[in-house]
Amino acid sequence: MGYTLVDTKVGGVIGMSMIKRTKNYTKKKSVQKMVISCTLKKQK
């Protein structure tokens, strides 16, 4: 029982960090897209 409890705790922590990572990744991606679109507009 204790083993599964620790397992779920670790899994939850890993899941949270993964969610945070993906959120940061998508944020960076959207910022990159904005920058790219801005530079494209300037070139025109």
If you had to describe this structure to a student in words, what would you say it looks like?
The chain is an all-alpha fold. The protein has a domain at 19-44. The protein has one helix and no strands. The protein has one helix at 2-43. The protein is rod-shaped. The mean pLDDT is 81.
Nutshell version of this structure?
The protein has 44 residues and is mainly α. Helix content is 95%, strand content 0%. The protein starts with a helix and ends with a helix.
As a percent range, the share of helical residues equals over 70%
> Over the alpha carbons, how many angstroms does the gyration radius reach?
19 Å
Distance between termini? 64 Å
Number of β-strand runs: 0
Strand coverage percent: under 5%
Sheet bearing the most strands, described?
A: none
Question: Given the C-alpha coordinates, what overall shape results?
Answer: rod-shaped
**What is the H-and-E element order?**
H
Q: What are the defining features of this structure?
A:
mainly alpha, 95% helix
Please render the helix and strand layout as text.
Layout: H1 2-43
